[in-house]
Amino acid sequence: MTIPNSTASTAENASSRLPAEEKRIVSELATNSNEPDSYFAVSKRWYASWRKYVNTPLGGGAAAPRPGPIDNSDIIETDPYLGRKSLAKEKAYVLVTQLVWNTLLEWYSGGPPIPRTFIYLYLSDSRDDDDDNDDNEAHIRDYYDMNKGELLDPLSNKSLEESGLVTNQDILLEVDERGLAGLVNLGNTCYMNSAVQCLAHTPPIHEYFLRDHAHQGELAKAFGKLLTELWSSGTNAVAPRVFKKKVDKAAPQFTGHYQHDSHELLLALLTGLHQDSDIVNVFQGQCKSSLVCPVCGETANTYDSFTSLSLPLPSTPTPSISLISCLEEYLAEEPLGPDNMWFCPQCKKQRQANKKLDLWKLPEILMFQLKRFRTSKYFLKKIDAFVDFPVDELDLSKYVENWESCLYELYAVCNHDGGIGLGHYTAYAKMIDDDNEWYCYDDSLVSPVDESEIVSSAAYLLFYRRVGSETETKSAEVSMTDDMDLS
Ligand SMILES: [Zn+2]
User: Fold this and answer.
1) Where is the DUSP domain (predicted)?
2) What pLDDT does residue 42 have?
3) What DSSP state is assigned to residue 482?
4) 257 is catalytic
């Protein structure tokens, strides 16, 4: 099988369409395609430049240039002896549906087209020199007459006849695109879609919900079904209609098609899921808050659980600040206001105490909210400060009194672009244990994103997971006799 040569189709004039319109059209085409066997490979490099172009904000920010013709040359290798072309070994391509391919080709020309049938052949041909154990990522199945048949073992030496395959029959590629499905926007639901994608890529959450559980709650049932669809629909976008209805029922403030805060949605969703299962406890940490009376030194500690840490951002214009300095600001000791006096049991008097927060126990999954939305009595404003946060290694051992491993790595980000009310939510998530690459989930559009783009001034919610050993206990068990709030 060889790859057809570039078709010399004439590119349309680029002037007639706005970038956002291209994005909308492709997004709709990706959603409307139900054909499971009509994929084309597109160079990841070219696709990423197109995604940058169509995400150029209207009237603000530096515009990304319109990419040139589709260039798939970087994902094709030519055999120097046979002159035969084959797909390059590294996974440097995305799969798009035939409708999307035809549309992009019409707009941009270029090529060459690489239909999915070729990708199947590549997978089965690669068995001899496949030393990085690709077989966990993809299964090839007999798909004669559109019926799911036997799994084909790429390592077997059976001939096609021995495998029961006939010439030109279909074979089915399964699970290669796990976790790469988008979510259809049901009308201002990007806040929900981005939050769901972050949860869907949270390892303990998807591992739990992809197993068969007899969920009691309607919300958990719908969420489990949605995750199963997301992780088995290849690259076809999923419409979360049933799930949205259950969210509306569990948390009526999200009813209708208005833009909401993705953080509020996440907390409501986790609360709803918690009624069905303890798995959401992976988000639960504890902090210790201390009240100190400056007059006599009397201290009272309380322990509170948290699902996310909401870090304040500087209200004065700041070009750049680090996540750690936001955290230090959050943990800093500060006096309570005069309207919030504390009755000191030592002095037996109302005192203006100092309040200090400490991280006490960190959860397996640590979520930060960067508080970009400031509300006051009269106005709502967004803080666009660039917060520099670590991607590979966040070490919090300095800030934690009582825990084992405090080393974290980032695996998902919920972004908010644009102003309040007009803004748009997207998610970045890493395909952990797959290709370990980052992808952008922009409603129904999913595309690869370079790791260098992850840290941006749009970042709103950060999702870290604990890495490394959990056994090095830093200090002994501490009895928590103080008031504990585990609600
Ligand atoms: Zn006192």
Assistant:
1) 17-119
2) 85
3) S
4) no
3-state SS, residue 206: helix
Please list, in sequence order, all residues whose beta carbon lies within 8 angstroms of the beta carbon of residue 25, skipping any fewer than 6 positions away.
17, 103
CA-derived radius of gyration, the chain:
26
More confident residue, 210 or 342: 342
Tell me the CA–centroid distance for residue 1 and ligand 1, in Å.
84
- Beta strands at 386-388 and 380-382: parallel, antiparallel or unpaired: unpaired
Tens digits of residue pLDDT in 257-295: 788 899 999 999 999 999 888 899 999 999 999 999 999
Do 355 and 336 meet the contact criterion of CB atoms below 8 Å apart? Answer: yes
Ligand 1: centre distance to CA 341 (Å)? 12
- Closest C-alpha to 445, from 39, 37, 96: 96
Residue with tokens 């994005």: 23
Contact between 446 and 95 (Cβ < 8 Å): no
In angstroms, what is the span from residue 345 Cα to ligand 1's centroid?
Answer: 7
pLDDT in tens, 437-460: 899 999 988 888 989 999 999 999
Give me ligand 1 centre to Cα 141, in Å: 74
pLDDT band at 176 (very low <50, low <70, confident <90, very high): very low
pTM: predicted TM-score of the whole model, two decimal places: 0.70
Catalytic residue (choose from 206, 287, 424, 440)? 424
C-alpha 274/C-alpha 465 separation (Å) is 19
Ligand 1 centre to CA of 184 (Å) is 58
Burial class (CB in 10 A: 0-12, 13-18, 19+), 230: buried
The answer to whether 194 touches 427, Cβ cutoff 8 Å, is yes
- 235-263 pLDDT, tens digit per residue, is 778 899 999 999 999 999 998 878 889 99
Protein residues placing their CB within 5 Å of the ion ligand 1: 293, 295-296, 298, 344, 346-347
139, 190, 293, 347: which is the annotated catalytic residue? Answer: 190
For residue 414, indicate whether it is catalytic.
Answer: no
